Amino acid sequence: MSEATTTTLLVNISQRVMTLTINRPAQKNALDSATYGALTAALTQANARDDLHAIVLTGAGGYFTAGNDLHDFVKAPEGASPGLTFLKAISKVNIPIIAAVEGGAIGIGVTMLLHCDFVVAGTGTQFRIPFVPLGLCPEGASSLLLARYVGIRKANEWLYRGMPFTAEEAQQAGLINRVVVAGQAESTAQELAREMADQSRLALTSTKALMQRASAQEVAETLDAERERFAQCLASPEARAAFSRFLAK
Fold first, then answer.
1. Residues with Cβ < 8 Å from 22, sequence gap 6 or more?
2. Rounded distance between C-alpha atoms, residue 74 and residue 33, angstroms
3. How far apart are CA 196 and CA 241, in angstroms?
4. Hey, how many other C-beta atoms are within 10 angstroms of the C-beta on 191?
5. CA 127, CA 158: separation in Å to the nearest integer?
6. In terms of CATH, what superfamily is 2-248?
7. Are strands 54-59 and 104-106 parallel, antiparallel or unpaired?
8. Contact 67, 29 (CB under 8 A)
9. Whole-prediction pTM value?
10. How far is CA 181 from its chain centroid?
């Protein structure tokens, strides 16, 4: 077993499984630049190793993630986006990723799930993709992948309106695999990870590579196209006003 602790991310490696725990519970695990950097580094490390069979991704304190830390987000410098760098990294991971979601998954907290192979959520978990209400547009290749998971009509509801939805609705639509008793998402995810640990790693990586093959170029192109539109929206008066209202609460 090995374990590493940063300010914002806990990394534990045990029995062929890497567990990544977003560790900003006081901020509902909102993702700032440091957290994105730590996640990207851990995923890159996982891809470079030949002894891992699965990754479990979860959040500390009974909450998955509230998405972008808007305080950090509004003062981010121009240039490479830590969030986009993370999304590109998670989209290229070569072993199964199992997300354990409790409490809430907001914004990129939902769109990153589109790049996970299994998603387990506790009852009471609330999901929301509030880009348009914040004056923004989709990211994480959600403009491509969300409709493939849940159908265009449901994707329209969740993307254009930004309304919250439950774990049960997410499962029924096909976004997540399983709903479990609140508090048991991570233990269930670890069970799935141990199952992956007992499988042939070559079979796991080959299966994932084949399943990603048809859409890999589309996903990469969509991530870049979304980033261009996202930057335009981010600079708009509507987005700035929405952020000001949010931060004033």
1. 8, 9, 29, 31, 35, 39, 57, 58, 59, 60, 64, 65
2. 11
3. 46
4. 12
5. 10
6. 2-enoyl-CoA Hydratase; Chain A, domain 1 (3.90.226.10)
7. unpaired
8. no
9. 0.94
10. 21
Instruction: Please report where in the chains the tokens 């080959």 appear, as a residue.
Output: 206
18-44: b (≥16 Cβ within 10 Å) or e: bbbbbbbeebbbbbbbbbbbbbbbbbe
Q: Which residue has the tokens 């580094």?
A: 41
Three-state DSSP class for 75? coil
CA 43 to chain centre: 12
The pLDDT of residue 228 is above 60: yes
The amino acid that residue 195 corresponds to is E
Q: What is the dihedral of CA 116, 119, 125, 128, to 10 degrees?
A: 30
Q: How many CB atoms neighbour CB 186 within 10 A?
A: 24
Which residues are within 8 A (CB) of 145 and not within 5 positions of it... i.e. 6 or more apart? Answer: 114, 215, 219, 222
Please give the backbone phi and psi of residue 217, each rounded to the nearest 5 degrees, phi first.
-70, -40
pLDDT tens track for 100-157: 999 999 999 999 999 999 999 999 999 999 999 999 999 999 999 999 999 999 999 9
**Residue 180: both structure tokens together:** 């479990």
pLDDT tens digits, residue range 40-85? Answer: 999 999 999 999 999 999 999 999 999 999 877 666 555 568 999 9
Under 8 Å between Cβ of 85 and 40 = yes
What is the predicted pLDDT for the residue at 123?
98
Closest CA to 89 of 143, 136, 20: 20
Instruction: With beta carbons less than 8 A apart as the criterion, state whether 42 and 23 touch.
Output: no
